[in-house]
Amino acid sequence: MKPEKKIREILKKYLGDRVFWIEPSLGSTHGLPDAIVINHDDILTPVELKHDSILNGRWKVRLRIPQVSVANRLIKNGQTYHVIVGTSGGDLYLARFDVSDYPIRNGLFSPVSQIGDPRHLLRSLSKIGRASCRERV
After folding, report:
1. Radius of gyration of the chain from Cα atoms?
2. By CB neighbour count within 10 A (0-12 exposed, 13-18 middle, 19+ buried), where does 42 fall?
3. What torsion do the CA atoms of 62, 10, 37, 16 make, to the nearest 10 degrees?
4. Pairing between strand 81-86 and 35-38?
5. For the chain, which has fewer Cβ within 10 Å, the N-terminal or C-terminal residue?
6. 20-52 residue pLDDT tens
7. H or E stretch including 92?
8. Distances from the Cα of 99 to the Cαs of 1, 123, 132, in angstroms?
């Protein structure tokens, strides 16, 4: 099973009908986020899924060029962009990008928060405030 598929299964299990898949299968869209989630505050939230590693509480941004373009357009228009990163060990992390991060570029390091229990995903997608991804390592 592809690692990103495992993250999709977790979202389906814990978010049910609050997740809408933009990408019906892996790699089938041109830069759009994988899903739209109705978060804990009943706000539509774009979510990208990635399988990657986390180093010292940070994720090195690795998005395809079209994904960077779409993320920057969303952020420029006031939307917060979320990336759920799943690791080989099965842990889930949340990276959040907003206007303070514009423009997103590959190679920046984003602080992430660990999602200890997938049942808390909706609440995690609703939290406001975090450090900027501007810091380089």
Report:
1. 14
2. exposed
3. 160
4. unpaired
5. N
6. 998 666 556 678 999 999 988 888 889 999 999
7. strand 92-97
8. 35, 21, 10
User: How far, in Å, CA of 83 to CA of 49, rounded?
Assistant: 6
Residues 6+ apart with CB under 8 A from 30: 66
Which parts of the chain fold into alpha helices (H)? 3-15, 65-76, 121-124
Tokens representing residue 8 in the block? 């999709």
Q: Chain-centre distance of CA 84, in angstroms?
A: 4
Count of alpha carbons within 13 angstroms of residue 6, beta-carbon side:
14
Residues in the chain: 137
Question: Using 50, 70 and 90 to split pLDDT, how confident is the model at 136?
Answer: very low
What confidence score (pLDDT) does residue 26 get?
A: 58
- Whether residue 44 contacts residue 79, with contact meaning beta carbons closer than 8 Å, is answered with no
